[in-house]
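In this supplementary section we document a worked example of the pipeline. Step one takes a protein sequence of length 65 as its only input; no multiple sequence alignment statistics are reported here. Step two produces a three-dimensional model, which step three serialises into structure tokens for compact storage. The input and output of this example are shown verbatim.
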Amino acid sequence: MSFAWGAMPTLGFLAIRSFMGAVNRPKPILWITLVAIPMNALLAYLLITTSSPIFYASIGPVCGN
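The serialised model returned by step three reads:
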């Protein structure tokens, strides 16, 4: 279950997105998504290109390092 840490926030986001769409208010979710995409890209870039101990701690055991 080590990869399930993001399941609950994802389900919460999907529930809120569906509710906001049902009540005809999709703009807040649109803006949250538009902000999250560049933030995700930036964090991915930083984790990949820097020698972050967080990156090595999370992927090191999988690679056998």
